[in-house]
Amino acid sequence: MLQTQALADNLYMLYDGMVRQFLLTAPDKALLLDTGFAGSQVLEAVRGLTDAPVQVLLTHGDPDHAGGLEEFAEAWLHEKDWHLVHGSTRLHPLREGDTFTCGDYRLEVIEIPGHTYGSVAFADWDKGMLFAGDSVQKEGPIYLFGAHRNLGLYIQSQEKLAQMAHRFRIVYPCHHTCPVIPDYIAKNLEDARALRAGTLTGQPTPGMPCLTYQGQWTAFFCTEEDRLRP
Ligand SMILES: [Zn+2]
Hints:
- This protein has helices at 42-47, 63-66, 151-164, 183-197, 224-228, and strands at residues 3-8, 11-15, 20-25, 30-33, 54-57, 74-77, 90-93, 99-102, 105-111, 120-124, 129-131, 142-143, 170-172, 202-204, 211-214, 219-222.
- It is built from five helices and 16 strands.
- With 230 residues, it is an alpha/beta fold.
- It is globular, with a radius of gyration of 17 Å.
- The protein has a five-stranded mixed β-sheet. It has a five-stranded mixed β-sheet with strand order 8-9-10-11-13, with no helix packed on it.
- Helix content is 19%, strand content 30%.
- It binds zinc ion (ZN).
- Residues 19, 62, 64-65, 134, 174-175 line the site of zinc ion.
């Protein structure tokens, strides 16, 4: 069962203890950022908060974010993550600079490939809010292992976000501490650069086919092969 919590005017968090979705509401429409795990009954939780038509935007295609997609007829997801999702939901592309409004919220898409190739963040510039999926986190682990992730791109995307960080006052991560201050963009970047440079030591991760690299602020799930991949 998803817990729901108001974060700001017309902004709600839906949370199962593992992963969060965010819901923006207005009288005429709602925007749902991510759908959670399959079976988490996200639509039921949404309907507890609004009767308005819901438009689904996905930060990326991992199963803890797109698993609940089946409950919706259509959704918006960056094309590079389309291969990660299955089922009959009709997909529309998300691209850099696309905007979505809901009441006085106006979200702009920022492409931030790395955690997945199709990862995006949603920025509300007027409100100083950033919804960054899994790409900005306080504790982590941030998943960066396997063929559909790329550490080099992740570092480039964090550099891109770091250039904008002064325009944000609050970041809403999907895992662990939420919200966090925008400083975690630069902190994640510094730790990711240390991971790339080989100054973090990988420790075995119980039950996972990867190593845990503990940075100063954030941990990463990665492998030596993934760490060095161009
Ligand atoms: Zn996730």
